[in-house]
Amino acid sequence: MKLHQPIRNKTIVILCICFLIILALFIYICFHPIIIHGPNRYPCCSVSISDDRFNPIEAFDFTRGDNRIIIYTNWADIRFLPKGMRRWTVLESKDNSVIESVRKNFVFKRISDEIVETTDYDCRIFFLKDGKLVFSCKMEVEESISLFFQNTGWVFAENYDELVSSFSSLKPVPFPVVKIK
After folding, report:
1. Which stretch of DSSP H or E encloses residue 102?
2. Is the pTM of this model over 0.90?
3. Which residues of 49-61 are buried (b: 16+ CB within 10 A; e: fewer)?
């Protein structure tokens, strides 16, 4: 009987260590989620801006179909999110009325051609229409909401309060690995 006791203790210790490693990895991934996505069907960087005011997702109808909006916020930038938005790294909504509300208020304005912002932001917004990625762009959400385009630099939201109100309806993604087609 004494011979089996050390083997049993070693097995319990090994299982506990494996459990703690898996738990630590899960917690790490919660703070640093993995977002797997392919190219946009409609690349955001090719958005042509003829005037200073535009809505990059205006052409899409999110009232029907299998649609999603996903906002990824870098863990370091969560503290800057406005009041009302949940403090989580990946937020999403599959509710078409919420997505359509965001679409209607997703109007941005270029302030000036002379403003050059070199800051890079690791946060992104994704819009999926019928399960396919139709728009993705770098985004900043603080005291203003900004998008980054290669051809214009940062542009700023005109309907900040309405967008924050819509974004407050997004729910945290419990599993930290998100695949976007």
Report:
1. helix 96-105
2. no
3. eeeeebbbbeebe
The number of angstroms, rounded, from the C-alpha of 1 to the middle of its chain's C-alpha atoms is 56
d(C-alpha 178, C-alpha 181), whole Å: 10
Reading the chain (181 residues) residue by residue, the pLDDT tens digits are 455 667 788 889 999 999 999 998 888 877 777 777 666 555 554 445 556 788 889 989 999 999 999 999 888 888 888 888 988 888 999 999 999 999 999 999 877 655 555 555 678 899 999 988 899 888 888 888 888 877 667 788 999 999 999 999 999 987 776 767 6
| 100 residue type, one letter | E
First-to-last CA distance in the chain?
A: 56
